[in-house]
Write a structure and sequence with these properties.
Isopropylmalate Dehydrogenase; binds magnesium ion; binds nicotinamide-adenine-dinucleotide; binds 3-isopropylmalic acid; 12 strands; about 350 residues
Amino acid sequence: MSRTVRLTILPGDGIGPEVTDAAISVLTAVAPDAGLSLAIDRCPFGGAGIDATGNPLPEQTLKSCVSADAILLGAVGGPKYDEAARHQGAPRPEQGLLGLRKELELFANLRPSKLFEGLEAASPLRRDIVADTDILIVRELTGGVYFGDHREGTDVASDIMPYSREEVDRVARVAFEAAKGRNGRLTSVDKANVLATSRLWRAVVDDVAKDYPTVTVDHVLVDAMAMHLVTKPASFDVVVTENLFGDILSDELSAIVGSIGLAPSASLGTPDTPGLFEPIHGSAPDIAGQGIANPIGTILSAAMLLRHGLKADAAAERIETAVSTVLKQGLRTKDLGGDADTAAATSAILAAL
Ligand SMILES: NC(=O)c1ccc[n+]([C@@H]2O[C@H](COP(=O)([O-])OP(=O)(O)OC[C@H]3O[C@@H](n4cnc5c(N)ncnc54)[C@H](O)[C@@H]3O)[C@@H](O)[C@H]2O)c1
Ligand SMILES: CC(C)[C@H](C(=O)O)[C@@H](O)C(=O)O
Ligand SMILES: [Mg+2]
């Protein structure tokens, strides 16, 4: 007997549809053995939502997401929409993404990045420095400067960065739990020498630490952390940080281990809300429509969807093993210095399953 699961797919813009198609073919391949029957609902979102309805998060799309078991997203945004926002005051695709994260209260964003075997030469770092890098960034996703008051004038503008104790506490607990299940080391990243929100962040993380005596905690300032990631990335295990710092550091880390095209993410809220799974990269307008995007970040996001969204751990591992295998065998998309296109990379992963 198979279990029917409802997946809402948000292909979005640019390379979004190319990489979500690749991930759907992988999900479809592993579903039967995992006892899953997939009921897929593709919905317009981001720029595609604006084109279809004028709204980056159309009402029907939100409805589908709310009633789904899990959501898979490609990417949103692009120059056409940036222009329309600038000149005609049109909504931005990115507002749809922020709106969806907030609507579903997806406060914890897991962004794992590790050096895959065989990818040493794709890293900009020296082999001995990047070796053994395996970091989980836990990024707070529904607070901070993204969601504070924004004032936009022609001469003065401001963005407010609020955080409450409760917002820090809940994401810190996710990070401590993750650290407990890995190597027991947590690095909390902030800017406590300047920001009041960072001093609250640090105090709350220290309070939560009392409930996790087996986890060691370090506090590191974000500017130094940006440096440590390129000088000693292998010395970190789990990193927890606020929304904007997590956005920036996760792109940096993804490039350190080879390419942003490899990096997946899971955005999680309470156990009864569907998770949102997406690669950390954007719509890559510079390569959109060419069929050359690296689909691995989205395929690994589909694996996270199986693990965190559907509790299908074995199927998730099958996908992760297939990805490791093809990379070890030398499969390289353009971003990794090779010439495999999206279709070839997807076929290789399907064959390795
Ligand atoms: N979650 C999201 O939907 C998301 C995330 C980041 C950026 N964006 C949006 O995407 C648009 C473009 O942003 P950007 O150019 O700063 O960032 P980007 O991540 O789209 O691209 C940065 C660089 O990485 C490359 N790249 C990204 N993904 C790749 C992949 N899968 N395979 C190969 N190369 C890949 C691109 O070609 C580009 O050179 C903007 O509108 C931005 O707001 C959306
Ligand atoms: C598109 C943008 C709003 C988004 C963010 O800043 O969170 C993106 O950069 C990401 O990392 O998912
Ligand atoms: Mg980002």
